[in-house]
Amino acid sequence: MLIFVMIEKNKLKDQLSEIFKSLDLDQKSTEFYLNCLVNGKTTINQISKNIGVARSTCYLILEKLKNLGLVLETPFGKKRSLLAEPPEKLISLIEKKKEDSLKAFELAKTVLPEIGIYSNIDVNTKVRFYEGLESIKQIYLETLEANKILVFCLTKIENKNFEDFIDYYEKKLIAKGIVTKEIVTDSEWDTEYRRKYSTKINTIISIPQKNSTETDYMLWDNKVAFISFMKGKFAGVVIEDQEIASFERMRFELLWSLITKEK
Fold it and tell me: Within 13 Å, how many C-alpha atoms sit on residue 5's CB side?
């Protein structure tokens, strides 16, 4: 029977701790309040011994509980005694906190958009980083949701896994009817690439191989992706920003017109 009572007390203590947490009060505050509740009139010295906390800390806890109206401090002879308010007081405190939270939430919905007009932060700009071959593939797959893709690809990657993926990717592009414009080099590998994947809506032009690099970039929708293959390592960054994408698209189209004009 004694063990059952102890288990029930511990269960109630744990449940009370959860309630105190919702009021931003810690475990020791729970124990402090319980000691006041169980012992009736008590003192700081007695509570300090019961819960194993220094008197100086007990005074800090007491101030918090007094401010919330959970514990009263009353004269008792030459000393001051502590008396806990009934547990029902916790319900009113929680209800008030709930009301305050709802008011703050409604206020936030109204005020924050107005404050936002003074912000210099462009919340529409997102930057994502990718590392490793499997991660880089996700950039390519994301472009398959676009209607048009611009590609500046002056690299040559000797990686069978990646080459197989590009073959899969290009076939998906063609099957989905996505319009593409690609700038590649006139290397033997890229010449074969042009022969294999060029269609009426997938236009590929070339520039001299001497301009080859180890970084490609892709443009679609409001996104720009830079993909590096330096020293066989795969890394990429995707910038999602309408203004940046528009600027890069203008540069690409200018370069495209210059190349086709020369040819």
Answer: 2
